[in-house]
Each structure stands twice: as C-alpha cells, then as structure tokens.
Write a structure and sequence with these properties.
This protein has 333 residues and is an all-alpha fold. It is 54% helix and 0% strand. It is built from 14 helices and no strands. The radius of gyration is 19 Å and the shape is globular.
C-alpha cells in the first residue's frame, strides 16, 4: 500500500517502513522472552514478591482442588476479593501448573509478545510502547492489559472480552470489525461461549459470587466521569478509525485507574513523534501519581489518579486521533 495515498495519516517525510510479518513475529518473540526474564529477575532478585496474577494462580489451584476460588482467594491473605469472572480462572489454569513466579513470568511473556506484534502493524516506532511505564506497570503486576492489547493484532484473541470485559472488550469491539471477516467473529463467539458454559459447569454459583465481589468494589471508575474526561467522547469524531473507537470505549469502561490500565493507548501511535509523546506521558504519569498511603481508602487513591492519567495519556492520545482524517484504513494488524 502506498504510504502517501489519501487517507493514510503517515506523511511523505516519515514513510511507514512497515515491518514484514516474519520480522514482527521475531520481534514479538524476543520482546516476550525479555519480558519474562525481567519478571523472573524482579521476583527472584527481591525487588517484587507479588503480582495481581498471583490471585488468579491461587484461584486456578483452588479450582483444580474442587474448591470455590471466590472463597479461597480472600482466605489466602489477599486484601481484596477475586474481581475476575470465572472464565479468567479457566484461562489461567495452564499457567497454574508452574510455580507462582514462573507462572507470572510466562503470562507476561505471552502478553508482551502479543502486545509487541500489535504495536508493529504500521511501523517499528510504536514498539517503544513496550518500554512505556504503562506497559512496565502491567508487566510488574501481571495484568491483562498487555494481552488484551494484543487483540488489535491477533483478532482471534477477541474471546478475551469475557475474561477482561473492560480492557479486552474495548480493544475487541474497536479493532475486530476492522480487521476480520465473519468467520473470525464466529470463532471468537464460539470460544467465548464455551468458556462461559464451562464456567457454569465447573462452578454453577460463580456468577453470583463474582457479582458480589465486584459490587462491593469502590475503586472502579470511568475516565469519562472525571471533570477532565468530558472531552474524550470527541474521539467519536473519528469513529471510522479503530483507534478512535478504542479510545472512546476505554474512556467509558469502569477501571481501577491504575497506570497499567492505559497500556492499550500505545496502539494509537503510528509515528516516532506520537510514540515518544505517549512514552514520555507515561513516564510523567509514573512520577506524578500519588502514593497509596496518602489516602484513606483504595478507592480514593485510585480515583485520584484519574486527572493525571487523562492529562498525560488520554488527552495526548485524543489529540493524535483528532489529527487524522475520519477514514478507515486497511489496517493489517
């Protein structure tokens, strides 16, 4: 495809230099191996002894033992209940056969590889997103946002929407219609349905337990509800573009407003300048986000993050999107 054709945002002064699929796969595998090694270094180097994925590891082990993970996880000593739906526990089952630290590393390696592959759809520059602090935070905590972002490049992962309905759902709804045909949509729907059915067969009462856990949470917050977030629906002015739709859906999704939640915004970047803006924005956010112990509750602490994340990441992503024409592209992700 000619990088200078009408409707293509990249200019003559910055050609696309689009990587081949083979090179993208190699880069993704390398990124995944490095990310996994970093996690092991953090875990065994004494720099980190906990990740959010550890909860799912415990939940998966409990399920294998025939116990209710929504009961076992709080008993394991975690301050918060299991907020994930049971399909997420089923997906975590293969990782649970490894020791906890190695399971964290393997999960992050898979997620980072998918993330890197999605980032390199247009050029190599967006690959800088894997060293952005939003992605690094997701790596440290073993969060789903990296794997969820990979849906943009690997649309057959769209069934992750039933695992992480907020982040994965936003990426899937935004990118899958632009990158797939009907057969892929049917495959995703089929896998998602199998996961849900299997969840009820394994633990029929899981939905009420999950709903009770989520209903008792006070820290989920949508960026659009913040006074600074009212401008984010302007992304719909570019509704034909998948990155614009994703930005809008992410701004509406209830989330913890932790830095890792913003990792999918790296998918908005296409050029060197855009990538640098978002990476620098994530660094500023990392430095300026308040400490948890400055607040009485977790909800207060995380909601206080909203203005910083919107100023440093959401608004720059919005400006990037609005500078493009409202035209769909033949996006090869």
């Amino acid at each position: 495809m000619d990088s200078r054709r009408p409707g293509n945002y990249l200019s003559e002064r910055e050609p696309m230099n689009r990587p081949t699929r083979r090179h993208r796969i190699l880069a993704a595998l390398a990124a995944g191996l490095v990310a996994g090694a970093v996690v092991l270094w953090l875990r065994f180097g004494g720099r980190s002894n906990f990740s959010d994925f550890d909860q799912l590891w415990v939940a998966a082990r409990a399920l294998l033992a025939g116990r209710d993970p929504y009961v076992v996880v709080p008993q394991y000593g975690y301050e918060r209940p299991l907020y994930y739906p049971l399909p997420a526990v089923l997906v975590a089952l293969p990782f649970s056969f490894a020791p906890m630290a190695f399971a964290h590393a393997l999960f992050v390696a898979v997620g980072t590889a998918a993330f890197a592959y999605a980032l390199t759809a247009q050029s190599w520059w967006p690959l800088m997103g894997i060293v952005g602090f939003a992605a690094v935070n997701a790596l440290e905590l073993g969060q789903w946002s990296l794997l969820a972002s990979g849906i943009a490049g690997l649309p057959w992962l769209g069934w992750l929407a039933v695992v992480k309905p907020t982040t994965a759902g936003a990426v899937a709804l935004a990118f899958i219609p632009a990158t797939t045909r009907g057969r892929a949509l049917l495959v995703n729907a089929g896998v998602a349905a199998l996961l849900v059915v299997a969840s009820f067969l394994v633990l029929p009462v899981w939905f009420s337990s999950w709903r009770a856990a989520v209903g008792g949470a006070s820290h989920f917050f949508s960026p659009i509800r913040d006074p600074l977030g009212w401008v984010l629906p302007l992304s719909l002015l570019r509704w034909r573009r998948p990155e614009a739709r994703m930005l809008f859906l992410l701004s509406c999704a209830p989330q913890s407003m932790a830095l890792y939640e913003a990792a999918p915004l790296a998918l908005v970047a296409q050029t060197r300048t855009e990538s640098l803006v978002l990476v620098i924005g994530s660094a500023i956010a990392r430095v300026t986000l308040g400490r948890m112990d400055h607040y009485t509750t977790l909800g207060e602490a995380l909601r206080a993050n909203a203005p910083t994340l919107i100023l440093c990441l959401y608004l720059p992503a919005l400006v990037i999107v609005l500078r493009r024409p409202n035209e769909s592209e033949n996006d090869p992700r």
